[in-house]
């Protein structure tokens, strides 16, 4: 287990370093295509047409680049797709995904949406110049939960002929590893009562999963014991025999704040291990 200390007073220096690193990247031209339907049944359902869309931001002059599939947060009840600024101008693609919400749908529909979006990337990224062997799945909060579910439970990608082990890495930010509190709410279970069932990433611990980089905020500032459940997940992955699970705790950052420094952990990992 590794802990990273980020002090708020150092953020101006940190942001300056980000800008300097971005400036040293090869200067590629980037394009963005918006609101691409990723489900084949989008024509038959108005809510699918509204929510099951994605944006792709990609470099035009780079070949075989890595791609980050990014799921926004919002408790599985709200939120909207966006391209994190830290991921721009990094010689990689970013696919930002919308998905359907409770209460209009219930579990596992939003997980199925996430899987359909990941499958779209596998099937289409080569058309944009990317490499399907360099796809990283990530997201914050609810997006982190979707990341882990799609990457650990093979049943969601199976209808598309894809195994989650084809994903280059899973990098969930502060995502539930127990059954999500919104899933529990759907069943009338209070949010302070933990459940681990087939809708929990912990239920799908296995030794052959893709590399997993777990990132949370400060354990004293995080939401709903998120650090502790993530630390337990890390331990269970290690006990299962998984060799590539790492946990970062960002001290001094709460649940919402932790995404900004977490982006730099993701980029460092992708550049060192995937974007070669």
Helices and strands in order:
Blueprint: E1 2-5, H1 11-23, E2 30-37, H2 46-51, E3 53-59, E4 65-71, E5 93-97, H3 109-124, E6 130-140, H4 142-152, E7 169-173, H5 181-186, E8 212-217, H6 226-240, E9 245-251, H7 259-273
Parallel strand pairs: 1-9, 4-5, 4-6, 6-7, 7-8, 8-9
Antiparallel strand pairs: 2-3, 3-5
Summarize the structure.
The chain has seven helices and nine strands.
Could you please say which CATH topology applies here? Rossmann fold
What's the structural domain tally?
A: 1
What would you call the shape?
Answer: globular
Low-confidence stretches: 6-14, 16-25
CATH homologous group name: Alpha/Beta hydrolase fold, catalytic domain
Mean pLDDT: 92
Walkthrough of the structure:
The protein is an alpha/beta fold. The chain has one domain (about 1-275): Alpha/Beta hydrolase fold, catalytic domain (Rossmann fold, 3-Layer(aba) Sandwich), CATH 3.40.50.1820. It is about 30% helix and about 20% strand. It has 7 helices and 9 strands. It has helices at about 10-25, 45-50, 110-125, 140-150, 180-185, 225-240, 260-275; strands at about 1-5, 30-35, 55-60, 65-70, 95, 130-140, 170-175, 210-215, 245-250. Strands 1-9-8-7-6-4-5-3-2 form a 9-stranded mixed β-sheet, with helices on both faces. Helix 3 (about 110-125) packs across helix 4. The chain is globular. Mean pLDDT is about 90; it is low at about 5-15 and about 15-25.
Keywords for this entry:
276 residues, 30% helix, single chain, nine-stranded mixed beta sheet, Rossmann fold, 9 strands, alpha/beta
